[in-house]
Amino acid sequence: MARPLVELTKKDAPFVWTKKHTAAVKALKHTLYADTRRRDVTYTPGDLVWVSSRNLPGLNQCSNFEPRFRGPFPINERIGQVAHRVALPPTYTCHSVFHVSQFVPDRPRDPQKTTKEAAVGWLPVTDPDGRPTHYYEVDYILPQRGTGPAAQYLIKWRGVQEDQATWEPASHLTHCPARLRAWRRHHRKAQRAPRVVPAAAAPDALSPEKTASPTPRGGKVERQPPYSRSTCNSTPPV
Asked: Less Cβ around it within 10 Å: N or C end of the chain?
């Protein structure tokens, strides 16, 4: 015969009270810890905010290139205690109500305290009086593409990185004919160089898949540096 429910409840009351008290203390500690990471921010209609791009449609195929916040967008209305409706562009096919934790207030910078960008550009060649001209210095010539009159040359300009090199036709290099002739001789010599097949690959030399490129040192291909790094004048890049 089972014990009465009153006796069971009376006996287990201290244990139940202890569990209830422990749970209440844990909940209070969790609340205090969570509040330390929250911001007591209030917005009114008309305020400009930046919205986290986590819940906005992507602008790039790779999420790593997405900006963290987009905006600023004006707030239309307040919904509840911690949500607001934002005026998003019509191209954003997503919900326009966000939690306040997804906002960053717009704080325009003081123009007087904003760092001015330095003048960035390719330094042209100056005349004997120190005045800039319409010509730029060619550092060296990188690979070319095309042949004949339609050939273009990848020019590394003095003062800029190689990733900013531009393709220029021969008509833009009229002020450095010696450099251009030297590069053409170097290019023709590289094209006419015989193909050297390593000894290990000699039996399969007739196979197009196993034909080796010029290998002057035991089958290892070395990258050839640009022809010259002396400077000459050229017309500005287009």
From this structure: N
